[in-house]
Amino acid sequence: MSLAPWVLSVLTVGLAAQAHVHASEAAAAPGYYTVQATGSTGWSSMDAKVEAVRETLLAAQVPGAIVALPVKAGDAVKAGQELARIDARMASQGAAASSAQVAAAQAGLNVATKEYERQKQLFAKRYISQAALDGAEAQWRAAQAQVTALQAQAGVAATQTGLHSVRAPYSGIVSSVPVNLGDMAMPGRPLLSLYDPAALRLTAQLTQDQARQLRSGVQVEIPGLTVQRLSIAASQIQLLPTADPLSHTVAVRVQLPANQQGAMPGMFARLWWQGDAADAAQRVLIPSTAVVRRAEMTGVYVQGDNGKPQLRQVRLGLPQGDMVEVLSGLRVGDQVAVEPQAAARVR
Length: 347
Fold this sequence. Notes:
This protein has helices spanning 4-28, 89-124, 130-162, 208-212, 277-280, 340-345; strands at residues 32-34, 43-52, 55-59, 64-68, 76-77, 82-86, 165-167, 172-176, 184-185, 190-195, 200-206, 218-221, 230-232, 237-243, 250-255, 268-274, 284-287, 292-294, 297-303, 309-313, 315-320, 323-328, 335-337. The chain is α+β, with helices and mostly antiparallel strands.
């Protein structure tokens, strides 16, 4: 009978501890937010890339060793600046030979011209026949034709000599130089590529319905630029007149403002446009506090079928106050944990 108070005390302590555990679990249980459609139109987006409006791949037109390569990738060049030079010694010798042949032909033409003038004077005095005069005229005309032909050949030789120097067709940035000094250049082999940084554009592949929604203009987002977003008018948007036969998407080109600092071809970009009423039923917002960011993954904890929160990756849109739009990864009716840290502790 003396053990009863001690047993009662143990039972009391055990019940209190169990109640404390249940209270702690209840306090640690995360709250949930039910995903609902907003009923209003929002912004839609699509991945895009930056490309140059003017981008040129300069190739060799004549064979020969590369003897000068004064530029490298990233250099800014002016229009007409020499970018590469090919060994032109043989071409220079050929041009000199052609010039000498032209000089010899012109000397022969001078002789034929003087002879023809003398024959005309003799014919006027009836000292020679008509046949002799015709012969002198034929020689004079042949000498003229020979000079013209040799001058054309000399022009071809001079043009070929000029092809050994590769010059910039416009002011721009050298994007790549796939050859080295001393390499053998062959006709058609790329020597370097050049683009104009003052004229850039965005390209994206959109569905037909998405392309139709671009009539009111778009916004452009390029990570890394000082300007968060750029507003582009509809007049600067071009829809190509053909669609891809496999994906049935339309290529869209968006002209960027001139001399956009920090942008370069190949950069990742995102195209934003205002959706229509048909998109309102699918547009959802969640509290910003529910978002979990781990390295490059963005997600939320969603209540699973077993009642426990499960991490799910999502794609976010624009923030709106304390809420943020979810473009993909959630659907109406999902239960999202508003306290991700508490949800991560639930096992």
